[in-house]
Write a structure and sequence with these properties.
The protein is mainly β and 457 residues long. It has one domain: 7 Propeller (Methylamine Dehydrogenase, Chain H), CATH 2.130.10. Helix content is 8%, strand content 39%. The protein is built from three helices and 28 strands. The chain starts with a helix and ends with a strand.
Length: 457
């Protein structure tokens, strides 16, 4: 090759390289208002653009795992407290009346006291003590897994007190209905084969009194081998599934009136239910890593059945209170929001399971217990089987704007469990629940079944 041709070749190569880097530079400067811009967290990680993803289409770029993100500071107002002194089978948050504390406590005035108030009529002057001031505050009731005894405490002042003395050994699962006044306990009979479900009504308390932990729970038994139970949003009814022959039957039970109504039947028996609102009960096939999952909704009034999601391996779901949104994940734990009206899907960029989350009443926010790290394995099977356990942070997700915020690292908080490096275990949060004012977030540590409270406001 001549010297002249060699120089021309070098010049052409330099021009090509400059053109390539110039193209990359201008591609990164997308004009404002075009696709790919904005501060919406969802849109930055949504590989489907503004049009959304159609139901059942699970292709595209894998989600970015942001669960390892840690902000520089943490809200100092957050308080983490262990509530129970024992492993619990289930718990409930409800509003409970109590005597209002007055400091200093004044002497109770008598009606008729004061110069401007005439005395009441009667043999003794009609003077009666003024009733003490009361208030309603968030309270907790929970069931000891070992004994089936019910315990209770107020959320703002943890003072664990035994409520009932009725013993039911080795309760695996418990629910509280009718604003905490009814309890459902599930356990295995002595033969280890039959699942029994006990439904009882809790005795009424005397305001300001002490039950001394000896109250007896009276009730009855539901059908043997109930496979799944969910509470209605007002907690006055339950929906339960049991196998009949080769199929499954779903029944609602009014815990106040005791009325039962069959609303569902299926030839398939492996279902998980959830009751987000009065017009909708969701039924999701039990998940497994390589098995396509499906979600349906049934109207408990009309008994109509409609498919919502399908053909998603490892599908787990959690519908919003208004029923318009479905939080779901797949076998990679990729968390998404499905819009039931537009059939579109938003990718949240967070990896966890919907059952480690809870919706706020307005259906615009979610609190989730999110693993710090998610290793590659066969989810959700390995997590259900206890082969994999998580150490979690609490995240707040705005499903309207797409903003995602880590608000608490549970292992790093004062009052939390010691980290593994300190010889302790972290929290793998499940059964998340909020009080009525959404000031407290409650959850159970899957590792040991102890109940915890996080003050978020």
């Amino acid at each position: 090759m001549s010297k002249r041709n060699f120089i021309l070749l070098i010049i052409v190569l330099v021009i090509i390289i400059l053109m390539f880097f110039g193209f990359l530079y201008f591609q990164s400067k997308t004009p404002a208002g075009e696709e790919g811009t904005g501060t919406n967290f969802i849109s930055q990680f949504n590989p489907f653009g503004n049009g959304g993803k159609k139901n059942g289409d699970d292709t595209g770029t894998p989600p970015v795992d942001v669960s390892g993100y840690e902000p520089p500071t943490q809200n100092e107002e957050l308080e983490l407290t262990k509530v129970s002194s024992m492993p619990v089978a289930g718990f409930s948050v409800f509003q409970k009346e109590r005597l209002k504390e007055v400091n200093p406590t004044p002497a109770l005035p008598l009606s008729g006291e004061g110069e401007s108030v005439p005395p009441a009529k009667g043999d003794s002057g009609g003077q009666k003590p003024t009733p003490p001031a009361t208030e309603f505050a968030p309270a907790l009731r929970y069931v000891d897994r070992a004994t089936g005894n019910v315990y209770q405490t107020f959320a703002d002042k943890i003072e664990e007190r035994k409520f009932s003395g009725t013993t039911i050994p080795k309760v695996y699962e418990a629910f509280f209905g009718n604003k905490g006044d009814a309890v459902i306990m599930r356990y295995l009979k002595a033969d280890g084969k039959i699942i029994q479900t006990f439904w009882g009504v809790l005795p009424k308390e005397v305001l300001g009194g002490d039950s001394a932990g000896e109250m007896e729970i009276r009730g009855t038994f539901l059908p043997d081998n109930i496979t799944d139970i969910s509470l209605s949003p007002d907690t006055k009814s339950i929906f339960y599934l049991f196998n009949a022959g080769e199929g499954a039957i779903g029944t609602t039970l009014d815990l106040v009136a005791g009325k039962k109504v069959q609303v569902f039947d299926s030839a398939f028996t492996e279902w998980l239910s959830f009751w987000p609102n009065s017009k909708m009960i969701t039924l999701t096939t039990k998940p497994s890593f390589l098995v396509p999952g499906y979600m349906y909704k049934v109207d408990p009034l009309t008994k109509s059945l409609t498919q919502v999601l399908g053909k998603i391996n490892g599908l787990t779901t959690l519908a919003s209170p208004d029923g318009k949104l479905v939080l779901y994940s797949d076998n990679a734990l990729a968390l998404r929001i499905y819009h039931t009206d537009t059939k579109e899907t938003d990718l949240l960029g967070v990896k966890t399971l919907p059952e480690k989350c809870v919706w706020v009443k307005g259906s615009d926010f979610i609190y989730c217990s999110v693993p710090k790290a998610v290793i590659s394995t066969s989810y959700p099977d390995t997590w259900y089987q206890g082969e994999v356990s998580f150490g979690d942070q609490i995240w707040k997700i705005n499903v309207v704007s797409g903003n995602v915020e880590m608000i608490a690292d549970l292992s790093a908080m004062e009052g939390g469990p010691a980290s593994p490096s300190q010889g302790g275990e972290e929290i793998d949060g499940i059964k998340l629940s909020l009080d009525e004012g959404e000031n407290y977030l409650f959850f159970v540590n899957k590792k040991d079944s102890f109940l915890w409270k996080l003050k978020i406001k």
